[in-house]
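Late entry, evening session. Most of the bench is empty. Finally got around to the prediction I had been postponing all week. Sequence below, unchanged from the version circulated by S.P.
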Amino acid sequence: MRLHSVLVKTLLILSVFTTNALAADSKALIQTSLGDIEIELYAEQAPKSVANFIGYVERGFYEGVIFHRVIADFMIQTGGFNEAMEKQKSGSPVVNEASNGLKNDRGTLALARTNDPDSATSQFFVNLKDNGFLNRTGSQAGYAVFGKVTKGMDVVDKIAQQKTGRRQYYKDVPVENIVIKKVTLIR
């Protein structure tokens, strides 16, 4: 019984420490070949999604990754391919947190996924407009919002205006690569 009590207290302390660590990393700077984008991360509402994103940032995963899907008046997507359109090896998927109350509104970041609601890994997108149809509803799992652009929406819009075409099996790929140079957590 005493060991159980000690374990519970230790887990509570670790839980508080982890939450505070995520809260401390409430912003990130995405440096791209077209300019900088500053984002606020919603660690309280989307703790697993934010921890997932921070893990990729801390490993330098996004350096050299391109915006590989750009659809005007919808969204811009990144986190999956390098400049040669080679798929990057991502980690384990995270549980979909689309029920967190955050909406896929203009400027928000959400995790990209397949038809499986719990399949999101490294890829994310920025909404170019309010995309209510991506929100969780009774019958639809939705896409988990985990952050929002606070500076650099002009850069997001600039990316959205780039000419796109087909590369390999993919469409809506910018003709000229738009590269993420670095992502830095702002503490």
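Two things to note before I forget:
The chain has one domain: 26-186.
Strands lie at 27-32, 35-41, 65-71, 75-82, 108-111, 124-127, 145-151, 164-167, 170-174, 180-186.
Will write this up properly tomorrow.
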